[in-house]
Specification:
Elements (H helix, E strand, L loop, with lengths): L5 H16 L10 E7 L2 E4 L6 E2 L5 E2 L4 E4 L4 E6 L4 E4 L4 E10 L4 E16 L2 H5 L4 E4 L4 E3 L4 E6 L6 H5 L9
């Protein structure tokens, strides 16, 4: 049996306490959830085919959210940011981290087509420098609380354009 010297034991206890005090978010922590859906809306995760969205579904980092014609989608992120996607939209949750206790904050969204209306949440209040919305033609840093972005069709890449919410979508 090996004894740990008192000095080493104290260091081990301090390290353990530090690790337990500020838990890191798990990679599978949701970024948010679907609040409402009207019409066809879907999520694409990785290389899986589009899956229809319904209220209560979880949204994760790297998810691709799409809406069909005459559709809309409402999402609430964990920091209380609210997102509204309009008809024929495509949004990727590129990066989302909300761990304010450890200083971990990030929000990066990419809108390649359609419209996005948003009301910013805690991330922007705590550190507006880490929140942005990218489009094929510009990157917008979020500094205020309300904003609207609209992208006309045809701005997205061919791969992005192929991703539609319905069963006819190309994975």
């Amino acid at each position: 049996m090996r004894l740990i010297p008192p000095r080493g034991l104290a260091a081990a206890i301090c390290l353990f306490a530090l690790l337990c005090a500020a838990p890191l978010p798990a990679a599978d922590d949701p970024a948010g959830s679907v609040k409402n859906v009207s019409g066809e809306a879907a999520v694409i995760r990785g290389k899986t085919p589009p899956r229809p969205l319904k209220p209560g579904d979880r949204i994760y980092e790297k998810d691709v959210l799409t809406t069909g014609k005459n559709a809309s989608l409402g999402v609430i992120l964990r920091d209380n940011t609210t997102l509204g996607l309009g008809p024929d939209s495509r949004l990727v949750v590129e990066r989302f981290l909300f761990a304010p206790a450890s200083g971990g904050l990030a929000q990066a969204l990419r809108l390649s087509r359609g419209s996005l209306a948003a009301v910013s949440g805690e991330i922007v209040k705590l550190n507006p420098e880490v929140a942005k919305v990218e489009t094929p033609v510009c990157s917008v840093g979020i500094r205020g609380t309300h904003f609207l972005v609209h992208m006309d069709p045809g701005s997205e890449t061919p791969e992005e354009a192929a991703q539609k919410p319905g069963p006819e979508a190309q994975p």
